[in-house]
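Q: Here's a chain of 127 amino acids. Please give me its 3D structure as tokens.
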Amino acid sequence: MKIIGAGVDIVENSRIKKSIIKNSFLKRVFTHKEILISKKIKNKPSYFAKRFAAKEAFVKSLGIGFRNGFNFKDISVINDKLGKPSFFITKKIKNMIKKRFKINSFNFFLSISDEKKYSIAFVIFQK
């Protein structure tokens, strides 16, 4: 497999804490499923900050940013039974990758972490 891109993002948790107070921010940035899961999470600022950083790192790994009809809600961060984070890859994302990179088979690897003040995410995109 060959690495096509890597992306990293760091976010100040206090910035997300202020933003999630606004329901419009939550609905603009996070999927319905991510918001539902957050109801069970005690530390919501950390939960949302890590996902925000993961979404930013994801688009950086693709080298596209959020433009041309591509937005935060197109990306969903999920966790397996053991807590390992990954992305739910929608048909829209698959089609965009096929068109832009001319590939059919690809993987994303996601690592997220946080401390009291910051959350960070690192993504590797490979074919």
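Q: Can you summarize the key feature?
A: The chain has five helices and five strands.
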